[in-house]
Design brief:
By secondary structure, the chain is mostly helical. It folds into three domains: 283 residues, Serine Threonine Protein Phosphatase 5, Tetratricopeptide repeat (Alpha Horseshoe), CATH 1.25.40; 127 residues, no CATH class; 79 residues, no CATH class. It is 40% helix and 5% strand. It contains 20 helices and ten strands. The strands form five sheets. The protein has a two-stranded antiparallel ribbon with strand order 1-4. Helix 7 runs antiparallel to helix 8. The radius of gyration is 23 Å and the shape is globular. The N terminus is likely disordered.
Length: 551
């Protein structure tokens, strides 16, 4: 894949207390201090590469060894569990692996302040990612460069520092959204065994806003579009994050900022992005090559050779498939093996766990001719007459079962099938050479349609809940034209988010949308997850979120 993938230099020692991570120097596998890790110009780019990749890495060594204390390394990946917290907590996905109690708790909204593996993974890795960025910023000041005699590549390092600041803002935004009021520390106020404090959800939102505005400003060291290789972030990534922040500002602070959301989204839209003509290709194994020049604004990178993970898009593909579905789709899609010959599968490995809740389909999808299949796998609907974004198979039951005994029933999704745009799949290998088991599909955190939806939803909220604005509806029309659907003359917020529920299926967007609509949970305290009690034990300054014991 045409990506910049640099082996990471810096890895953190396994730490048990998240709050203490904010005050630790990271060590690499050779037990050298981070100070001595910066020997040459490439060292600074390697350090940045690890920050960039940490969303999908579980350790510096291999995808089966975690650098945090967990029972299953693959289930500790940041993106994998971020998707669980955002989509499993809605009806966008059901997961039938009932031996994992954290899955039932998130699906049933029964989590507490007690340990839950998904909450632990996202919280711990979020704090660790912030630590990585803070430490990188400490070690890359002009003073540090001068002391090492590295002034000759100071300008490059300035750009790297801007990218590290973006990643820190990105992770703090995720922590703001999921945990409300997490511990907060920057590189200038850590050290001396200080314990980080909480600054409140509103103040954290305001800090993120100020940081992003500085990064998108003229003269910022963050690269403009086209100045750095994919998948490194640029000013448009920061602008897109700012648009998402403004869209949810009312949730975070109590005061909506719809006009600011429109303005921020429009700035991204007007910078030359276009919808990729083929929706399916957005999720294929070579999506980084095909979509990074048009629709992708910022993505997490995966690669079977250099950025392997049991989380991310590997989970989304392997986790959704069983043998019957694999066989059916290989024929339906005309899959061939890379190197020649017909394929009997489209996902080389099958885990048979992920489903779509049938209520989610009924509530949001425009399916024509839907019918339950019986006992074998079929599409279960008229694909030619239905929304072209729908990539489902029906296994012969109305209920997408949250039950391991019914793992072969209900609606399954092949959106992340392990195919490339030329119709090929990777040949199965052996356990001794496991590259074939991983996915190379990148995960787009920001795609252009989100900016279209933000603009339209914000405009609708500014106009009594309905938009008839030509610009807003023109954006939605582009999305729906690609899906083969007509566009009404006006759209309510509910209609806009119904369309988005299909466009962004299994992309981590649904929880935020339901919270803004007020339909996520009857208990508003469940709109955020609890602060880890292990952190509260380590840091008595931390207060628990409302609704969880011990606050």
């Amino acid at each position: 894949m045409k990506k910049i993938i640099i082996p990471a230099l810096i890895a953190l020692a396994s730490l048990t207390s998240c709050v203490k991570m904010l005050d630790k120097l990271p060590l690499n596998s050779y037990d050298v201090t981070s100070e001595s890790a910066y020997d040459d110009a490439e060292s600074y780019l390697r350090g940045l590469a690890y920050i960039n990749a940490y969303y999908g890495f579980v350790s510096i060594s291999d995808p089966g060894s975690s650098d945090i204390s967990v029972s299953d390394a693959g289930q500790s990946e940041f993106l994998r569990q971020w998707l669980v917290l955002n989509d499993l907590s809605t009806k966008a996905v059901d997961i039938g692996w009932t031996n994992d109690s954290y899955i039932k708790e998130i699906a049933n909204h029964s989590w507490t302040n007690a340990d839950n593996n998904a909450i632990i993974a996202v919280y711990t890795r979020g704090m660790k990612a912030i630590t990585l960025a803070n430490e990188y910023l400490l070690q890359t000041t002009d003073e540090k460069l001068a002391a090492r005699g590295h002034q000759s590549f100071q300008n490059d390092v300035h750009r790297y520092r801007a990218e590290a600041r973006f990643h820190r803002a990105m992770v703090y935004y995720i922590m703001l959204d999921l945990f409300g009021n997490p511990p907060f520390a920057l590189e200038e106020n850590i050290g001396g065994n200080k314990l980080p404090e909480q600054i409140g959800r509103k103040a954290l939102a305001e800090w993120i806003e100020s940081e992003l505005k500085a990064l998108v400003a003229d003269g910022s060291d963050l690269a403009a579009k086209g100045e750095v290789a994919y998948p490194r972030p640029n000013k448009d990534a920061a602008q897109a994050l700012l648009a998402r922040l403004y869209l949810n500002w009312g949730v975070y602070t109590g005061t909506p900022r719809w006009e600011d959301a429109k303005i921020a989204a429009k700035k991204v839209i007007d910078n030359g992005y276009t919808l990729h003509p083929n929706y399916r290709e957005l999720f294929m194994q070579d999506n980084g090559e095909n979509c990074s020049g048009d629709e992708f604004i910022f993505a997490f990178d995966y690669d079977t050779n250099n950025a392997r993970s049991w989380g991310g898009t590997t989970t989304l593909s392997s986790g959704a498939f069983n043998d019957d579905m694999n066989t059916f789709l290989s024929t339906y899609l005309g899959a061939t093996l890379a190197g020649g010959g017909a394929a009997t599968y489209v996902s080389a490995e099958v885990w048979n766990g992920y489903h779509i809740n049938p209520d989610y389909i009924t509530d949001n999808f425009e399916i024509v001719g839907a019918a339950f299949a019986g006992t074998s796998c079929t599409l279960g609907y008229n694909a030619a007459a239905s929304d072209k974004r729908i990539m489902l198979c029906n296994m012969g039951a109305a209920a997408a079962a949250f039950d391991a005994d019914k793992a072969d029933t209900g609606w399954k999704c092949w959106k992340w099938a392990k195919m490339s745009s030329d119709g090929t799949v990777v040949p199965r290998g052996t356990d001794a050479n496991p590259d074939w088991k991983y996915s190379s599909a990148d995960f787009a955190i920001f795609r252009l349609p989100e900016m279209y939806y933000i603009y339209a939803e914000a405009d609708a909220n500014l106009n009594g809940g309905t938009t008839s604005d030509a610009t807003a509806l023109g954006y939605i029309k582009q999305i729906r034209d690609r899906a083969g659907l007509t566009t009404p003359a006006a759209m309510t917020v509910a209609q806009i988010l119904k369309d988005k529920a299909v466009e962004y299926l299994w992309e981590g967007q649904r929880r935020q949308d339901e919270i803004r609509m007020g339909i996520f949970d009857t208990d508003p305290n469940r709109n955020i997850y609890p602060i880890l009690e292990s952190d509260r034990s380590a840091n008595p300054k931390l207060e628990q979120n409302p609704g969880y014991s011990g606050n």
